[in-house]
Amino acid sequence: MADPRTPASTPTPNPTPTPTHEQRIPDYGTVRIRPLDPAADADVIHAWVSEERAAFWGMTGLTRPQVAEIYAHMATLDTHHAHLVTKDGTPVALLQTYEPEADRVGECYEVRPGDIGVHLLLAPAGPDGRRPGWTSALLTAMTSYVLRVLGRRRIVVDPDVRNVKAIARFERQGFVTGPEVVLPEIDLPDVYLPEKRARLAFLTRETVFPEDTGTD
């Protein structure tokens, strides 16, 4: 995850809220992206991040109150934001967006105007198991939200190099893989993040929406 408690991330009295987005995807359903409620959504998020499959998220072992505290702190920031993604009303993913220059990834590549960092944690498969096209549909809604609703030019992701499934998933969605980098260790009184070897990948607005070329 992009930990919000980095040195560049300081609370603001009245952080700018992120907008809500709703998108109907044919043969899939209605995807809604809204700001995460740290208290009301803590149970579902804690259940997701506690699973072994979410080890790369970096929050396994945390208690529910600790998870709620992290996202309550994030809600005070203008540089990092958390969103709950639902499909037809059912929670299906956690989306985090952040300003690369306010995160350790900003030390590892040349940040451009209009860049935005993204982390996406998918909910575990339901009783019917995995469904073809499920992740692609969610990524379609996510990219529409980030690139059009938030008005950004380029998305950057930094999955762990060992998370080959995530890297392949982004490549299938049109992301262009970049260099392998080492995200520096963060060692503060209230947070410790170990060094992370990551694979950067990028997706531009022009790739997803060619008709937007030359527009802001």
Per-chain topology:
Blueprint: E1 21-25, E2 29-35, H1 42-49, H2 64-74, E3 80-87, E4 90-98, E5 115-122, H3 134-149, E6 154-157, H4 164-172, E7 176-183, E8 186-188, E9 191-193, E10 196-204, H5 205-208
Parallel strand pairs: 5-6
Antiparallel strand pairs: 1-2, 2-3, 3-4, 4-5, 6-10, 7-10, 8-9
Task: Provide the succession of SSEs.
Answer: EEHHEEEHEHEEEEH
Overall number of strands: 10
What's the rounded overall pLDDT mean? Answer: 89
* Strand numbers in spatial order across the main sheet: 1-2-3-4-5-6-10-7
Strand content: 25-35%
By secondary-structure content and strand pairing, the structural class works out as: alpha+beta
Helix content: 10-25%
Question: Uncertain regions: pLDDT < 50 for 5+ in a row?
Answer: none
What value does the Rg take, in angstroms? Answer: 16 Å
Q: Give me the number of helical elements.
A: 5
**Distance, first to last CA:** 29 Å
Shape: globular
The biggest beta sheet, please? 8 strands, mixed
Description:
The two termini are 29 Å apart. It is built from five helices and ten strands, in the order ββααβββαβαββββα. Strand 5, helix 3 (134-149) and strand 6 (154-157) form a beta-alpha-beta unit. It is an alpha+beta fold. Helix 1 crosses helix 2. The longest helix is centred in the middle third of the chain and has 16 residues, at 134-149.
